[in-house]
Amino acid sequence: MNYLHKFHLVEAEKARVLGQFFEAEEFYERAIAVAAENELIQEEALAYELAAKHYLARGRSKIAQTYIKEAHYCYDRWGATAKVKDLEKRYPQLLNTNLVRQSHSIVTDETIRHPTAAIDLAAAMKAAQAISEMIHLDQLTATLMQVVIENAGAETGALVLLEDDRLTVVAQCSESRQCNLEKIAVAGCATIPVSVIQSVERTSETLVFDDAISEPSFLTDPYIQHQQTRSLLCMPILKQNQLIGILYLENNLSTGVFTSDRLQVLKLLMAQAAISLENARLYERLSDYSETLERKVEEQTQALQQEIAERQQTEAALRQSEANYRNLLQTANSVIIRYDPQGRIRYINDYGVKLLGYEEHQILGRSLFETIIPEAELSGRDVRPFVHDLLRNPQSYPQGEGENLCRDGRRVWVVWSNQAIFNEQGDVVEILSVGNDTTQRRQAEEALQRSEAKFRTIFENSQVGIYRTRIYDGLILNANQRFADLFGFDSPQEIIGLEHTTGYYVNQGVRQQAIELLKRDGELQSFEVQMRKQDGTLFWGLFSSYLNAADDYIEGVIADISDRKQAEVALQASEAELRALFSAIPDPLCVFNAKGQVIGAIKGNPSYGELHREEYIGKTLHQLYATEQADEFLSYIQQVLRTQQVLTVEYSQWIAEREIWFSARIAPIRHEQVIWIARDITLQKRAEAASILEERNRMAREIHDTLAQAFTGILAQVGAAKQVLTDDVEATEAHLDLIKELARTGLVEARRSVVALRPQLLEEGSLQSALHRLVAQLRTAAMDTTLYYEIEGAVYSLPIEVESNLLRIGQEALINAIRHANADEIRVKLGYDRDQFCLRVRDNGQGFGVGSIPASEGFGLLGMSERAERIGAQLTIRSQPGEGTEMIVTVDREASQ
Questions:
Q1: Within 13 Å and on the Cβ side, how many CA atoms surround 663?
Q2: Distance CA 454, CA 255 (A)
């Protein structure tokens, strides 16, 4: 009997009385640990009780509650019923009288029942328990190999562990000799089949051969061939699905030794071995730490007895081990929760608290149904009956997955592994559940399902054919409805696995060419092929394919482009016809883009030389013509592109020292381009000029004769009036009236003749070109004034008299603005609407009051008003001093005709 625990307990009480609280708490822990180690239940209970009193006196009720519960539990195990009731009576606030204390340890003698097994499972479980109790790595390794060889019927075996990311043989054992624990790298070990070990390392799967020497996969392994190995087993040792080692066994006396029953036993032993090996490694590290700590304690406590020093060292290591395991539970990336058969939560780790959104005190003591089990999942499934059944029969539900409710209402998906904890009577006292959050995985799976459904819909309803075919014979492995339609079938089921695309190529050589391109490049884009439908109808298909050489298939898409091919043929014929037509046109033809660049030309057969030669292609108007004319031509192009209307203009050029006149038709075509056809109208213009000159001469003679006759009569009447002026007043008045009538008649005839003469600017073109030339002339004359000229709408012609008067009005407005307004900027704008025409002249000059113009200065406005009235136009003048002037003339198109 050891009295060390009593010594620690007395030291604790002494320290408590002296007020040395930290030393007291340390001695309480040592007393509890030593009593528990020696299975002195009553002494352990007393130590817990005194420690609880100490913490309660210091006001630490939470810690006191833990220790009084442990004391209650130990007294109950010892059978001290009166003491149990005494604690419940004295500390009701710390103890729940309805609570039945459960064991914190997992029962290791759990019975495994398998009535059909031929192996002594009880012996195997005893061996597994023995392995689980060993913490020294060398002892564990030797014992493990002896147990495995004994239970599996092997002659020899080897244990390979993963150390520093490298497989190392740590033990080689046999039935007849002790284990060799010398460590050897697998690659340098000649007593095991290295290829078998490497295969298991790659696949993490167990290899069992009844007759290894006959296995085709390992005929070249030198060890198997040399040893003539018969029965062979190579099993991975996994910890949380991670490879930590490999077990190798062999029996060269007989074949088929490693049966399925023995394999099951070995799997059970290896599951425990994985845990024990990890624990042994942990203990080995702890031992190293403990040895270091022991040396330090030994140096500082030379006066202490050797036995006390050793026990202190052991206790420190045990406490560190316990702390490590507790820390492991608290920091694990899994939810760890313990609850009783009624569903009341006894323990939950930090990760679980954080995931579910509770504080620890908010969830402990409450039931699963009050906290994390929802009334129904979002899918509508009611999980409560399942949880009730789990509480009644936890062995039936080792694993499960479901939605769990967080405190803030969130739902998380968790995969649970459940383990029942039994008391000594075999009753379930608690259930331990370990859960992993699979919410993201579930969301990813749902997203994948939605994506698959979406792409399946796209596949089935696509307007292009989608297919997969075998390379060498074209067998259709998969296809959508559109692919079946293209080849004249009612559904994909009629062709998948039955039809070969090779029979539907019009030209088999084209298919072979496509296969060669696929093998060379791995893919094929926009490949045009003529195909044949089931009924023999031909169509053109556009293929884009991808080669999967590893799986021997081609997949891709096909679209029916028969309509496009027919359109291309028609377009080619149309283009040929159009080219022939253009070639027959004698007039030069150019195509300009929006920037005035020549992008195409046909020189035609002009009489004035080769103006539109091929070297002009690519050049701009400003590279071919003077700036003023280039600006004019560019404005025509931009007007046509803006209005999308055909424009006809006349202009002249000096070519070979001759003035050549052209009439050009400018029409919009595709892609912001215009076509410009220029016709030589020089002879026509000369004829018009001669005709105009002749008409002017005739009109001049007519005006001369009319005015001469009128003024001759006036002079005669004036002479006669002089003779009778003093003799006969009535005769004088008659002569004066006649003079007045002759003068009026002459003035009317003169005006008629002048109106019949068109302005010279209009003789050379239309109103818009006349105004353009007028603006160009004024730009040169008025250097300090900037003039802008703009045309809006589709240009059309007005009657000659209307255009003549509009030009005169515009000319008068421009001259007034330049001479009298002191304007910096003048804008002229022609507006061609469908129903009316509008001329605007606006300046930013000094302006004037419209009603305050002296008569001597208002002849210009009066003349514009008379001209507007003459053609039935509406004249509007807007002006204010300092704000400029705007003159607007509006002509009704229909009324002017």
A1: 9
A2: 55
Please state the length of the chain. 897
Residue scoring higher pLDDT (659 or 708):
659
Closest Cα to residue 212, out of 189, 196, 199, 197? 196
Contact indicator for 401, 442 with CB cutoff of 8 Å: no
**Secondary structure class of 418 (helix, strand, coil):** strand
- pLDDT bucket at 99, cuts 50 / 70 / 90: very low
Q: Can you tell me whether residue 264 is helix, strand or coil?
A: helix
Report whether pLDDT(857) > 60: no
User: Distance between CA atoms of 752 and 703, rounded to whole angstroms?
Assistant: 9
Torsion of CA 535, 536, 538, 542, to 10 degrees: 70
pLDDT tier at 711 (50, 70, 90 boundaries)? Answer: low
Neighbour order of strands in the sheet with 647-655: 598-602, 589-593, 673-680, 658-669, 647-655
**Residue 64, Cβ neighbours under 10 Å: how many?**
21
pLDDT reading at 696 higher than 80: no
Q: Counting Cβ atoms within 10 Å, is residue 756 exposed (0-12), middle (13-18) or buried (19+)?
A: middle
Question: How far is residue 435's CA from residue 349's CA, in Å, rounded to a whole number?
Answer: 11
CA proximity to 721, closest of 731, 708, 707: 731
Higher pLDDT, 216 or 760: 216
Paired residues of 412 in beta bridges? 404
Q: In this structure, what are the phi and psi dihedrals at residue 876, rounded to the nearest 5 degrees? A: -125, 130
Determine the Cα–Cα distance for residues 224 and 213; give it in Å rounded to an integer. 6
Beta-carbon contacts of residue 306 (< 8 Å; ≥ 6 apart): none
Residue with the larger pLDDT of the pair 105 and 117: 117
Contact between 351 and 332 (Cβ < 8 Å):
yes
Reported as a single tens digit per residue, the pLDDT across 493-549 is 999 988 888 888 989 888 888 888 988 998 999 899 999 998 989 999 999 998 988
| Residue of 755 and 866 predicted with greater confidence | 866
* Burial degree of 358 (CB within 10 A; 0-12, 13-18, 19+): buried
Predicted pLDDT at 106: 28
Cα–Cα separations (whole angstroms), residue 571 to 62, 560, 885: 93, 19, 56
What pLDDT, on the 0 to 100 scale, is given for residue 584? 66
CB 181, CB 173: distance < 8 Å = no
Residue 510 in contact with residue 528, Cβ under 8 Å? no
CB neighbours of 529 closer than 8 A, spacing ≥ 6? 505, 506, 507, 510, 511, 514, 540, 541, 543
Return the bridge partners of 163, or none.
166
N-to-C CA span, the chain: 137
Average pLDDT estimate for 309-319: 77
List pLDDT tens digits, range 373-400.
888 888 788 888 888 888 888 888 888 8
CA distances from 328 to 323, 332, 336, 349, 696 (A): 8, 6, 11, 10, 117
Exposed, middle or buried, 663 (CB in 10 Å: 0-12/13-18/19+)? Answer: middle
What is the number of other CB atoms lying within 10 angstroms of the CB of residue 96?
A: 12
Give the position of tokens 């799967």.
Answer: 205
- Which of 31-35, 128-132, 184-188, 341-345 has the weakest average pLDDT? 128-132
- Amino acid 29 reads E
Alpha helices in 410-541 (DSSP H): 439-461, 481-486, 508-521
Tokens matching residue 101:
């204390």
CA dihedral 59, 65, 70, 74 (to 10 degrees): 90
Q: Is 644 left (phi over 0), alpha (psi -120 to 50) or beta?
A: left
Tell me the pLDDT of the chain averaged across its residues. Answer: 82
For the record, the structure tokens of 704 come out as 């001369």
d(CA 48, CA 686): 131
Q: Name 465's bridge partners.
A: 558
**CA-CA distance, 76 to 237, in Å (whole number)?**
41
CA–CA gap between residue 882 and residue 757 (Å, rounded): 38
Alpha carbon of 236 to those of 88, 266, 778: distances in Å?
Answer: 52, 11, 101
